[in-house]
Amino acid sequence: MLLVDALRKAGWQILEKEGRDALTLERLCARSGVAISSIYEYFPTMESLVVAIFDDFRAEARRRLVEELQALPPSTKLFDGIMLLLSIGIPMLHTWVKLDPELFVKSSHYDELVRLDLVKPEQYWTSMATDALMERFPDEVQVRDRAKARFLAFHTILALPRAMALMRPEYLAHDDTQELMARMIHALLANNG
């Protein structure tokens, strides 16, 4: 729907350029051209709008990851695929933490329920990413127990960046974070043991 798209686009522009505190009904109304009463109809709270914006943000990251994994040359190695995944996922997470740290903490509680398999979303970023890696590089995923390797990689990709975002957000921006994580994940997926 055009009205909802306009609200999401305007909300993202405000978040990105001015920060979470600037995302008010009045500013959203002025930027989007949508009446306040209509905003409430689709997004009863600013938090519900921010959640929708980040759902779109994650969906775009998923689409980009699949597209870029498929576009990699045949000679690409598993480690490079992992680095690609992390080069998309870690900055996405870092952006979210910077734009709305309070909502990130709240959503982390939900994400933890997902990680523990208590809530089952349709398209969870790390589940899709882990599967895409294992499908793209089947010859390099040399583990006896693929289900166990997938489980360990999934939880590493999901929980470790979230822990950094909650406790050490500066680590998300460090140059070596993605490579260190890639080494861990590669060892989980390429170990012959």
UniProtKB/TrEMBL annotation:
Domain of life according to the entry: Bacteria
Residue ranges of every copy of the HTH tetR-type domain listed in the record: 1-61
Keyword hit for Transferase: no
Keyword vocabulary terms for this entry: DNA-binding
DNA-binding positions: 24-43
DNA-binding recorded as keyword: yes
Molecular functions (GO terms): DNA binding
The protein's name in its UniProt record: HTH tetR-type domain-containing protein
